[in-house]
Structures are given as C-alpha cells and as structure tokens.
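Worked example (supplementary).
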Amino acid sequence: MESDLNTIRTVLKENRSELLARSNVVAIGIGYKIIKGAKTPTLSIVCSVSKKFPASSLSARDMVPATVNNIPTDVVETGPIRALQSHTAKYRPAPGGVSIGHRDITAGTLGCLVRKSGQIFILSNNHVLANSNEASPGDPILQPGPYDGGKYPDDHIANLEEFVPILFDEQASDCSLTRGLASLFNGMARIFGSEDRLKAVRTRAAENKVDAAIARPLNDQDVRAEILEIGAIQGLAQGELGMAIKKSGRTTGLTTGEIQQVDVTVNVQYGAGRIARFSDQLLAGAMSQGGDSGSTVLDNGNKLVGLLFAGSDNTTIINRIENVFSGLGLSL
Amino acid sequence: MNRVYLVILILCLLSCQLHGEERGVSPTIQEVKAKHAERLMAMPGVVLVGIGKNPDGQFVIIVGLDGPRPKTVEQIPEILEGYPVRVEITGPVKAR
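After joint prediction of all chains, the assembly is encoded as:
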C-alpha cells in the first residue's frame, strides 16, 4: 500500500505538467478511483477538470489517458478553482465582511449597508469608523483599513457621518480608591434601600449599549448590499439564548457560534487602560479575533441580530441590532 | 461609632428582607441580575455578569472573571434569590 502510493507519487511527479497542460484540467492529485459514484480500493491519478466533455468532442491532445505508466486515472468535474475570498483585499463595490477603518486606526470590519433618511450608509463600530470618539464627522474612511494597506486618497471609500459616543469609565477598575468608593456606595445603598441604590448606580458608572458608527460612501456604486460568504440580509431578528449565529469578519472570515448569554453587563478594555461598561449585550463563544470588530451577526435565516465589537479568549461580545438601529436612527 | 452603623445596617437589611417577603412575588432572573450586577461588577476581577442556561436548561446568572480569583469566588453567592450562580473564567474582554 505504502509502496503503491510512493510509486504513484513518482509517476505523478513525472507526468504532472504534461497532464496539467491539457485544456480543462485544473488540478492533479492521488485518490481512490470512483466508479459510478462508489469509491473503489484502487488508487488513481485524479484529474480535476473545470467541465467534463464527451471523448468525441475532445482532441487527442486534450484527452486524459485511461492510464499513465499503468496507473489508472480518474476524471472528476470540480469546476474552476478560485482562491478563497480574501477579507483584507480592496473591493469595489465593497460588501460586508471586509477590512475597513478610519485612517488613524489599524483595521476593522465593514458590517453591512443600512439606511438613514433614505440614504445608504456603511455600518461598523465607533472604534473602527470613529477611532473611539477621537474622529470628527467628515473624516476619511479607508477600504481596506490602514493595516491592510489602505491609503488615502487611493482607498478612500466613505466619510464618517455619525457615531454613538462611547462613555468611558473614569475610574480604573483595579484602583483601591475606586473599590473603597464602590463599597461605600453599596453600604449606603443598603442603608437607604433599593430605590436609592439605583440612583447610586446611575451616578457611578456610565453604561453603553452600543459601539456603533456610520459612514457615507463617496459613491453608492462603491458598496454592495451583501455580506461576503453570507449573502443578502433577510431582515432583523432578536437575539435569544441558544440561537445559532454566524458572522463574516476581516480576520477570521466566516465563523459560527451560539448565543450563550443575554442581558450581559460587561467591562470592555479600549487599549491603554480605558474601560467602558456595556449593558444589554449578547455573548457567544470564541468566534472572533482582533480586526473582526464591526462584523454583523446573523441568524441561520440570514436575519440581522447584532454588531460584534469585543471579546476575550473564549467569548465574543455583541451589541443587539435593535439598540444599534435605535441609537443611530437606522433601517435596513 | 462603628457598632452604631452596624446596628443600623442590620436593622435596614432586616426591614428590606421583610419588605421583599411582604410583596410575595418572586422576581424574574432579569430583575435579580439587574439588582445584583453592580455589586458583583465591583468585586475584583469580575468582568461580566449575564444570564445563561445550564446544560439541563435551567436559567443561571453567570459571573465572568478576568482570571483565577479565589478570593472573589469566595464572595460570590452560589444562589441569588433562588437563581443559581455560575462562575466562569472568561479572561479580560477587549474591543476588537
């Protein structure tokens, strides 16, 4: 068996270029010969073709021989073989799921197209399109993002329109003063009862619901209302515990997961010690990496459920799409 | 002086508990989570509080930690107003 394979390998090596020279042959490899749909124990040289033609219509030069050096061949129709779709390349029109970013950031993901007052906009995160509150409306947005080689003005695709400001927690979480203040607040809350405790919550930590921003394409023909590897969006849906979800992002491409937690309150780090608290978030398992921020999250029916913006080694944190749409006054 | 505060605190806690029992309605898990989230988030190493399900389908309050935090784990109750609490190590959560 082992020697058979090695013999075939040698034959394959010697005849590879000659076989690939035939028109329609797109790949050559070793595999079990399939006869009438059933796998046989016979090893063969498999020639993948873009399209099978009847022998009568092929010239002798393009015909795959029945055997090569006594090794049987098998012809399989695979269609043309393309490179897997890159998420970091330049796209015009640009779909959802590809690299994008404000010119002062690295790169994030273009979520999808949305509408506001009848116009088309690109949806992504504040920290992707608006550099975490640092940007100004009108700033250039590049596709691909700067980390992926996007340059101004060649890759300028849109201008920042609007963002929901992220409210950062002024107090560092590991500060003992903060902890002391927090426990003092809690003690007071206990003393004064539950209503007053709610007041203490409001004054202490600013809570965010979304990390979202929109950008206006320079030209509507430069963007596409589809998501790479997913397709067209089929409406909106509310994220629920146990729901199967997927996303298409710049770094990890198409990944799937499940909503494991709802009503999540979470502290999110934004670089250099800045922390922002978010509430009413959805949580899924590991289905993202840095650069996937801004990906839209969809259910199995391609309905929009959320906007991905953060995560840890084993979690992914997602804004509810209803909060994103209401926060920016958007529709599909 | 401290003892006076302690007595007031205990009296208030008792009255709050009585008040809750008087209402006689068991709160939803969302209400319980909302009520306790701030206190849990203030504990060292707690990065998130959410609502999930156990493998048997039972709703649980989940507390996520940035790493192993034995002292914090000791402070987290196993049950909050009738709902089980599960502690998980999620690691620090970062914007992506």
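Two points are worth noting when inspecting this output. The radius of gyration of chain A is 27 Å. The longest helix of chain A spans residues 2-20.
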